[in-house]
Amino acid sequence: MAKAKAKKPVTVKITAKVSGYTGESAGVQFRDGVGETSDPWRIRWFKDHGYVISADNTDADEAPDETAEEEKGDE
Fold first, then answer.
1. What's the confidence (pLDDT) of residue 9?
2. 3-state helix, strand and coil shares in percent for the chain, rounded to the nearest 5
3. Which terminus of the chain is more solvent-facing, meaning fewer CB atoms within 10 Å of its CB: N or C?
4. Contacts of 16 (CB under 8 A, 6+ apart)
5. Are strands 12-15 and 34-37 parallel, antiparallel or unpaired?
6. Residuewise pLDDT in 10s, the chain (75 residues)
7. What is the pLDDT, as a whole number, of residue 26?
8. CA-to-CA distance for 58 and 63, rounded, in angstroms?
9. Cβ distance 8 to 50 under 8 Å?
């Protein structure tokens, strides 16, 4: 029997709401307005809070939904 392939974690880029932001938000380090994570909980959190998420190095079937929402003001 062949072993099932382990799924590779999905890494996404997160664009900060504030252009050029450098710092930490929700456990993700941002530099010049961009952060990265493969944590599904954090990806969902950023999506739910209106951040722009884009697939970084994933297969099309595994890529998360991209959000093309306009940037919203700070909550």
1. 77
2. 10, 25, 65
3. N
4. 25, 30, 33, 34, 35, 51
5. antiparallel
6. 566 666 777 899 999 999 999 999 999 999 999 999 999 999 999 999 999 999 855 444 444 444 434 444 444
7. 94
8. 6
9. no
